[in-house]
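Batch job 17 of 40 flagged for manual review because the log was empty.
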Amino acid sequence: MTKEEALQEVAKRIAACERCKYSPNQNPVPGEGNPNAEIMFVGEAPGAKENETGRPFVGAAGKFLSEMLNSIGLERQDVFIGNVIKYQPPGNRDPLPDEISFQLPFLLKQIAIIQPLLICFLGRHAMNALLPELGLVISRAHGQLIEKDGQHYLPLYHPAAALYNGSMRETLLEDFAKIPAYMDEIKAKAE
């Protein structure tokens, strides 16, 4: 089975998960991108636009994410973009801990299939789902490369933060600008 086929199989399981849905007519948002991506971006949960389209990060925050990718010479199709939660929570609220723990295995399976060199967290909830020992304080961890059990992580503020707070835009762009050097460092360690 190819990586693409394996990811499609995970997407089918997400779509069939009735317990994951908050309402019967919801669209699953399994994630999308390059099955061989070296970099994977993980957000918290889909929003309204994502629920409509079944695609991650397609609203205003997604446009800024694409802009930031372009700023380091990447396109959406070069990376894999997903979320911890695969369906939009009611009222766009934060996912509850039991919802995260129930749906997290889907994300872990996607990570196992893709085997990215770097996982970038888009926001504190995504960071906390995979690295709970950091707590929910992304202000101390953002922009810093973290290695745990051979996997490299980069906590970033959520792109939506820049939509509400203009100063966050510069911080996010500065943190994104570190990605190429971090990738060089990760690849050098692997050799």
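Reviewer: the log was empty due to a logging misconfiguration, but the result itself is present. Strands lie at 32-33, 39-43, 80-83, 118-122, 146-148, 151-156. Unflagging and moving on to job 18.
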